Each structure stands twice: as C-alpha cells, then as structure tokens.
Amino acid sequence: MSTIAIIAIIIGALIIIALLVAMARKSRERRELGQLQTEAQRDDVSHHREQAQEVRTEAAVAEERAKRKATEAELHEQRAAGRERELDE
C-alpha cells in the first residue's frame, strides 16, 4: 500500500473514533439532563404536596377557630337571653 493510502485510512479511523466519542458524550449529557429534569419535577411535586399540607393545616386551624367563635357567640347569646329574662321579671 502506498503511504498516502495508509495515512488516509488512519485519518479516517481517527475521524470515526472522534465521532463516536462525541456521540457518546452527547448521549451521556442528554441522559444527565433528563435525570436532572426528572429530579426537578420530583422536587416540584414534593413542594406542591408540602404546600397542600400547609394549606390543609391552616384550614383545620381556621375551622377550629370558627367553632370556638361560634361557641363563644352562642354563650353570649345565652347570656343576653338570661339578662333579658331578668329584665322582664
């Protein structure tokens, strides 16, 4: 074989190797990006679940306050009715 043919084969092989390495890197980067995006989505889901739990807790506290206020209003109403009966007597 001539020297030029051997050099051309070596250069062609180096180009093919370089392309394979570049494709492997690109594939790895794509896979890593996909993993990062999946992790970010899971974090987002977790954040929304935490927010939902906080809102549920706030709602439960507000409901308990409302029950207490209703009981307090009922007590005041009973006191008013009692005082009114005293006045009517």
Distance between the termini: 130 Å
Q: What do the pLDDT scores average to?
A: 95
Order of helices and strands: H
Classify the secondary structure makeup into a structural class.
mainly alpha
Low-confidence stretches: none
Q: Tell how many strands the DSSP assignment holds.
A: 0
- Assess the beta-strand content as a share of residues: under 5%
Number of helices in the DSSP assignment = 1
**Largest sheet report:** none
Structure write-up:
It is built from one helix and no strands. The protein has 89 residues and is mainly α. The relative contact order is 0.04.
Reconstruct the topology from this structure.
Elements lengths: L2 H86 L1
What's the short version?
The protein is mostly helical. It is built from one helix and no strands.
Key structural traits:
mainly alpha
